[in-house]
Design goal:
The structure holds 2 protein chains of 2 kinds. By secondary structure, chain A is mainly β. Chain A is built from no helices and 11 strands. Chain A starts with a strand and ends with a strand. Chain B is built from no helices and 11 strands. Classes of the chains: A mainly beta, B mainly beta.
């Protein structure tokens, strides 16, 4: 079973607003990554945050990581209609197996 | 855009047929993965490989098999397709960047078994 859970499951916002989605996980991790998936396509890597980092920025993306709460959040600022997609978090454990555990995903819809 | 390719993109096939989903990457990545994803749902790891002649089963039990004879090629085979195999299959490879592994995904194969 997947260890990552994301909330909300779905989110609709107006263009220009900020979108926040959260991810929780269960085991110790080496790093946490966020991916984006457009409908019916493969996933695209967005950003990676290491277990010893607390916050990271990339363009309009801001990721936070709280290892004590085993949670992460992804903030997309000034959203655009083109941001409409599903967003998944993925964790890589410290066990050295290089296996990725994906969350359940948040489906974001940005209305123009 | 990552250089990872999957064929076919769409496949509709009858029950009992043997099928092979192709995945290839030109980036020289040693680690490759197969995931199964139902529409709007999470990804489930079904097979992975750390390199040539290395294959492992993932977390989701699957009736499929894989092989890794060449670094760039990681095909997935279903010996006898069933309607329960209807799903999207995503192939990925990963590379170590600054001490961390990052995955690159192919566009997926959407399989329908009638």
């Amino acid at each position: 079973s997947q260890q990552g859970e994301e909330d909300p499951q779905a989110l609709s916002i107006q263009e220009g607003e900020n979108a926040t989605m959260n991810c929780s996980y269960k085991t110790s991790i080496n790093n946490l990554q966020w991916y984006r998936q457009n409908s019916g396509r493969g996933l695209v890597h967005l950003i990676l945050i290491r277990s010893n980092e607390r916050e990271k920025h990339s363009g309009r993306l801001r990721v936070t990581l709280d290892t004590s709460k085993k949670s992460s959040s992804l903030l997309i600022t000034a959203s655009r209609a083109a941001d409409t997609a599903s967003y998944f978090c993925a964790t890589v454990s410290t066990s050295g197996t290089y296996k990725y555990i994906f969350g359940t995903g948040t489906r974001l819809k940005v209305l123009a | 855009e990552a250089d990872i390719y999957q064929t076919p993109r769409y496949l509709v096939i009858g029950t009992g047929k043997k099928i092979t989903l192709e995945c290839s990457q030109t980036m020289g990545h040693d680690k490759m993965y197969w995931y199964q994803q139902d529409p709007g749902m999470e990804l489930h790891l079904i097979h992975y490989s750390y390199g040539v002649n290395s294959t492992e089963k993932g977390d989701l039990s699957s009736e499929s098999t894989v092989s890794r004879i060449r670094t760039e090629h990681f095909p997935l085979t279903l010996e006898s397709a069933r309607p329960s195999h209807t799903s999207q299959y995503l192939c990925a490879s990963s590379v170590r960047l600054a001490g961390n592994y990052e995955q690159y995904f192919g566009p997926g194969t959407r399989l329908t078994v009638t």
